[in-house]
Amino acid sequence: MKWTYIICCFLLLIINSGCTSPNLEHPVIEDLGMIGVMGFDYVDAKNVKVSITLPQPSQDVEEPGQQFSSVVKMPHEAIMDMSTLTEKTLTPAQLRVLLFSEEYARKEGLWKILENLYRDPQVGTNIFIAVVKGTVEDILTGEYKDKPDINDYLIDLLTPRTITAFSPFTTIHDFIYRNTDEVSDPSTPYIESVEEGSLKITKVAIFKNDHMVDTMESEEAKLIEAMKKRKELPDFSISIPAPDGTLQDEEMVTLKFVNTRYHVKVNGDLEKPKLFIYLYVRGSIVDYEGKKDLATQDNRIEIEKKLEKQLEDKVIKTVRKFQKHGIDPVGFGESFRIQNAREWKKEKWIAALQRADITTHVETRIISTGTIR
């Protein structure tokens, strides 16, 4: 009886192993479709249109990549659904970019999608996030001549470079950290399709919690990155209006940053908060359009004073925008939290920021004008 039982078990094991293909459980790498970019467009309050791209490893194919779209409720549901459209088993293990349409970012927010992807062990934490103007599907299906496939193109576009250093280059980890932080709020690059079939980071999208509320122009964003103590910043173009308000004597200066220093002084009082923002800018003039001779010291000092006034106005204007929306992308609240650790709540800080008295001083030093004599 004992031997009969053993033989039956052995036969069952052979039958079960023969009915299961090893490729169903563990597909080889050649059978995997590596998702490079995943995007989300607004449909309604319950559904989202998910678009993905798959790079084509073969050099013989006509198209450098494949695009698929599906209307679902959750991102992983889209992966399962679109797996039926291709011969590959789709996987997010090589996901590098997440795109959200502006409509989706404003109406639904990013948290639901990011939270579900973040808990997937296959999804890395250094995936770039960006908001796009229009729909993600149009971005992914657009024609970009003389450009690599859309996967490499977007990865290269969102990789940190000095020329686009006004962009925060946000990853999943960065966004979740900022969104759950007790002081600051997240921001992401804002991408637009421009002429001649190209994509461009034009602005920075700013968020209250996980919902997009506004954008910052690149010149405003450069000042914010300086306040975040980023060391390398791109050139900064500043228009200096004429005293009489006419365009005839307007001056234009392009300043190349050499280095910046920033600090903020606060009174620590959440009931009557006061902030003093100090920014020191040291740089070279690489372009100048105006009537002054920058070879003379008096003219350089005059330009410095005008630049200080313009930069101060931009800092105040940008911080006023933060107060209006009740957000803190810079992290001003950290100085207040140090002095109010026991009773600290982010909601209380945001309320304090919105009524805070804010002043600023920008000190500018021109170390070179490029004048040839």
TrEMBL record:
Membrane topology of the entry: Lipid-anchor
Leader peptide range in chain numbering: 1-20
Pfam families (alphabetical): Spore_GerAC, Spore_GerAC_N
First-listed, main subcellular location of the protein, grouped into a coarse class: membrane
Compartments where found: Membrane
InterPro entries in the record: GerAC_N, Spore_GerAC-like, Spore_GerAC-like_C, Spore_GerAC_C_sf
Keyword NAD listed: no
Domain called Spore germination protein N-terminal: residue spans: 28-192
Keywords tagged on the record: Germination, Lipoprotein, Membrane, Palmitate, Signal
Spore germination GerAC-like C-terminal domain mapped to chain residues: 203-370
Family: Belongs to the GerABKC lipoprotein family.
Protein's name in the database: Ger(X)C family spore germination protein
Biological source species: Halalkalibacter kiskunsagensis
